[in-house]
Amino acid sequence: MKLYIFAFFGLFLTLNLNAQAPETKEDSLKIREIYSAALVNGKAYNWLDHLSNKIGGRLSGSLNAQKAVEYTKTQLEELGLDKVWLQPVMVPKWTRGAREHAYIQTGPGMTTEVSITALGGSVATATGGLKANVIEVQGIEDLENYKDEIKGKIVFYNRPMNPELIQTFEAYGGCVDQRYSGAEAAAKYGAAGVIVRSLSHKIDENPHTGSMSYGDLPNNKRIPAAAISTKDAEYLSGILKLKKDLEFYFKLSSENHGEVQSYNVIGEITGSEFPEEIMVVGGHLDSWDLGDGSHDDGAGVVQSMEVLRLFKETVYKPKRTIRVVLFMNEENGLRGGNKYADVAHSKNENHIFALESDAGGFTPRGFSFEADDAQFAQIESWKPLFEPYLIHYFEKGGSGADIGPLKKGDIVLAGLRPDSQRYFDHHHAATDTFEHVNKRELELGAATMTSLIYLVDKYGIKRINLEKDQKL
Question: Which residue in 2, 266, 303, 360 is deepest, having the highest Cβ count within 10 Å?
Fold first, then answer.
């Protein structure tokens, strides 16, 4: 029975291709060639293996981040691109220091150790650590309800990601403010420190780090901030209901070291017909230090590199200039994305399209686009070419943090959208490691990105501002 099904499916694809217009058929065949090259002879997984297992976590400003710069530059040079270069960028350097330690004390000699991790950018506790009573709140807006009780205590932010939301990035966005701005807000009420529930749907013992900011707080007003695992957050919340006067102890040895120089890594294939029209594909080279950054964002880095390699392998000469940009410092500063955009704008470069992969190396589902209605209609017309690969998601929405600063004029920004249900199990945690990336899923993502870049290169992007000027 299965043989009949496969035979019918093959016949359907053959008839469908034969029924297509010549141009659409040509695109279908080219996209099929791209997917075959990625799945049979892909290089992304091997590149990721090196980044993850030979280099490891690539915290901005670290030696490992510099090793990643040197490695990816070498690999791009070996592809025989028209140009490869490093773009200097100043980045913040923060170090975690000695392993964090924390426990809950419910009485003399009655302690329970819990798993925490310093948030990126946090100041250290005093040498002996910090011990204080705890106030549990459900987000920054809830602080006002406890304004007279917070002083000298540890604020425990325990608003979880909303499990009802199918889009996990929407759930993440709904509570990330307590991690990023929670310490700044609590310090203004006199808190001694903050503990933040890890941003993950999964209930486990792995705390998730991430960037935080003190805003304009002076150094002497800054308080230590750490994330607690979801399992221990549940435990702490439960114990607080029984014993409100319990004490929480934690010790951080983190330190901020100012700024150091790093680099964006850039490679380019110059366009054969419209070299002044530039398309960017990229991911961020830096990662947090708890794991090896395979999903966030080693996957996006190697997928972006693979786009240019696949064009080389399938002997496709782009009409427009295609750049791969491996951005530095997305995690705790966005310095690389801002630097690239600043240089591009200062040179009056004509960027028409940018695609970012920064949502993990899981099975691709499609793309989200920041585009005008007419531009989106043009792109959406290509959707049937992706449906044989189960790519159905073409929606307006956000794109990516690193390409966001490029937004100007008619440029279209896009983000690869993989299946996100498992992404926040690993995001910013010690479990973001190579063994959690599936080779085939990673390769499918690279092929999907390459196919979209191919179509944009072949047909260009509608220039909305030009059309408006012509109507006037």
Answer: 303
